[in-house]
Amino acid sequence: MSSTFGTLFKVTTFGESHSPALGGVVDGCLPGLELSEADIQAQLDRRRPGQSALATQRAEEDRVEILSGIEQGITLGTPIGFIIRNRDQRPGDYADMRAVPRPSHADYTYVQKYGLRASSGGGRASARETAARVCAGAIAEKMLRERAGIDIVAWVSSAGDIECAGVDPETISRPRVDAHPSRCPHPESARAMEALIAQAQSEQDSLGGTVTCVCRNVPAGLGEPVFDKLEALLAQGMLSIPAAKGFEIGSGFAGARMRGSQHNDLFIKKGDRLGTRTNYSGGVQGGITNGEPVIFLVAFKPVATIGQPQQTADFDGNPVTLAAKGRHDPCVLPRAVPIVEAMAALVLADCYLRQLQRR
Questions:
Q1: Which among 141, 137, 329, 169 has a CA at the least distance from the CA of 238?
Q2: In which domain, by residue range, is 316 found?
Q3: Which CATH number do you get for residue 266?
Q4: C-alpha triplet 195, 201, 202: angle, nearest 5°
């Protein structure tokens, strides 16, 4: 099992959904950076369960404890260890599902790979695992912001068949995103999304959608051709998030329906640098950032664990009716926003350090 991400800025995470704790080690953070638990906690609070009626009501405070790598609030350049203790596990909720692989979940594939699986909560396949990613991403983001001025904001851009309207990637901010439980920054669209998510929840069903992310003030030159192109690393990071099923950067699949004369980003002078008039490239050309905002979209499938009775089969192939118990999100999108930001920060931090090595 691969639980390490990155090359120079590396994070290794540990812990299961119902284990005593989750945590990780970040290796490669630059020394001399002001960093506190509060810097990490802000993002962790945006990811934690129970924050609104649209999220799972598992009552976890998700308080992070820094164990190493910091002295008097300053990073030492040594590994930063952290831990988040699980307080509200209910493994008994999963007793009826131990013999039945949940449809579209990882229960069946984990057994095929390892010969066994965590019997409650999905283990490492649970979205609970992403709490450690968010901690590591918050550290990466602080480094990027302080040393390079990079700013990362994600938002819910669609839920079901409802699209978020009127978002300017150049000016969108986290306070605007967090103004609505759905984390869609357009008020009318947000209300429609929240009603649709609540409807799915009342029907013991789930809903999918998309999260869009913009990374601003990214310097030109980040990314490592040929196989470590920035968009390839972003795609890997985003598709490693539980329930993520699609990735687009810039024009994405819509660009496949355009002509080159329409799609080409023509160069213009922007202050003391060369920029582009449009940004169909999504800030990346040839796998390397060009100085424009890096903008991409991640598609998330509906949550697999639902309360509706489903006709399926147990591990022995016997027909069964499964009505899953436990506390689960009807839609992952609002809590996925800080996870997408975290993975973007981890990718950019790694590429930033690799570029520094060249100087």
A1: 137
A2: 4-357
A3: 3.60.150.10
A4: 90
Q: Residue 82: what pLDDT? A: 98
Three-state secondary-structure class, residue 336: helix
Looking at residue 96, its pLDDT comes to 65
Residues of the chain with pLDDT under 50: none
Residue type, 62: D
Buried b or exposed e, range 109-128, using 16+ CB within 10 angstroms: ebeeeeeebbebbbbbbbbb
Query: What is the CB neighbour count within 10 angstroms for residue 105?
Result: 18
Kindly state the helix (H) or strand (E) to which residue 12 belongs, with its residue range: strand 10-14
Q: Which residues pair with 285 in a beta bridge?
A: 288
Q: Which uninterrupted H or E stretch holds 299?
A: strand 294-300
pLDDT number for residue 121: 59
Q: Which pLDDT belongs to residue 57?
A: 60
Measured distance CA(319)–CA(149) in Å, rounded: 56
- Count of structural domains, the chain: 1
Instruction: Give CA–CA dist 149/293, Å, rounded.
Output: 13
Predicted pLDDT of residue 54: 78
- The pLDDT value given to residue 278: 98
pLDDT recorded at residue 92:
52
